[in-house]
Amino acid sequence: MSLFGRFRGKGKDEQAGAADEPAAGAPEASSATPAAPPEKKGLFAGLRNALRKTASVLRTDIRDLFGAEGRLLDDDLLRDVFGALIKTDMGVAPATEIRESLKKEFRGRKVKLEDVMQVVKAKFAEMMQQEHGELIRAESGPTVVMVVGVNGSGKTTSIAKLANHFHHELGLRVVLGAADTFRAAAVEQLTIWAERIGVDIVKGQQGGDPASVAYKAVERAVETNADICIVDTAGRLQSQVNLMNQLTKIRRVMTKLIPDAPHEVLLVIDATAGQNGISQAKGFSEAVQCTGIVLSKLDGSAKGGVVIPIRQQFDLPVKFVGEGEKEADLSAFDPARFVDALFDE
Ligand code: GDP
Ligand code: MG
Fold first, then answer.
1. Of 51, 53, 157, which is best to mutate to test ligand 1, by the most ligand atoms within 8 angstroms of its C-beta?
2. H helix or E strand, kind and range, residue 345
3. pLDDT recorded at residue 98
4. 25 alpha carbon to ligand 2 midpoint, in Å?
5. What pLDDT was estimated at residue 40?
6. Which helix (H) or strand (E) holds 131?
7. What are phi and psi of 287, to 5 degrees?
């Protein structure tokens, strides 16, 4: 199912300096957006490639444990399979559950690689299951999406990817709101993306009130009959009370224009941030009434298993996954496709 189907189918202050520095390795706004025309490639094309390293741990590492004839499923083998599972960042409890399933099914027997992989794949599919993965759409008028998360998690880049998808692949009219007013570079970064992708952007002054920018962005979306308004926010930690209150204020001002806005509050989580990243995000989601997760930076590491603890620890569906730094590097999250990309050769 294309995202098109999913989308249509549904009815300064106390800002901690350290938390708002650009992420290490983050390109300057100007270098993040090379001069080539916006990319278009569809919503699942990059998934297999992004999950290549994780898939290699699951397939190659586990395969290497077996001979052509199969192998006796003993404690040594169980320990080594468990080790490969842990490498994917899936977490100790889920990996233990899989190990116990294998033990129950095959212990003391000679097993083939395929038998083991079938059990592992089925468990992955079960653990990633979710409902309501599609983007929530306004019944009428613009759909308002607010994007939140800790600094450097990939919020602005994910917004560019969403804007690119909505505008270039779905033909929708998009307005961006640059409500990360804390850093001048943040507004500049989003502006460059907006120009490159060819969508409208509403900006405020650096250091200005983010709620006012958010309001104006939604206002512009209403006035121009746009289909979707995506509002960027500054990175923050759940412990920064005033900044968390600021998010509440941003939400509140939007409702003056569209009573049920924001329709989505997407929490961006960096897939490479490990358990610490997950617990930060957890506090966040409890404080801001998020509606879905964007899991960024799945590419380049072997940590694709992190979807499992995220699915298990959040009462929120994963809606999109980020798989690179370019605007086309986004997939809709679909558990079945995700598991196929991990296990199918
Ligand atoms: P923000 O502070 O949450 O807005 O984060 P940014 O969107 O500015 O991203 C921080 C850094 O992560 C930048 O260098 C991005 O290019 C990079 N980044 C964001 N998403 C991805 C992704 O899916 N894959 C990779 N490899 N890098 C990403
Ligand atoms: Mg940003």
1. 157
2. none
3. 97
4. 14
5. 56
6. none
7. -80, -25
Query: Which pTM does this prediction carry?
Result: 0.87
Pocket test for ligand 1, best of 52, 325, 330, 333 (most atoms within 8 A of CB): 325
| Residue 168 phi, psi (nearest 5) | -85, -30
The type of residue at 140 is S
Residue from 108, 182, 193 nearest 157 by CA: 193
CA of 320 to the centre of ligand 1 (A): 14
> What 8-state DSSP symbol labels residue 24?
T
pLDDT tens for each residue of 19-58: 344 443 334 444 444 456 666 566 777 899 999 999 999 9
* Of 120, 112, 109, 115, the residue nearest 67 (C-alpha): 112
Report the phi/psi class of residue 274: left, alpha or beta, with left for phi > 0 and alpha for psi in -120 to 50. left
Terminal CA-CA length for the chain: 21
The type of residue at 215 is: Y
Question: How far apart are the CA of 64 and the centre of ligand 2, in A?
Answer: 42
Q: Which of 131-145, 189-203, 232-246, 318-332 has the lowest mean pLDDT?
A: 232-246
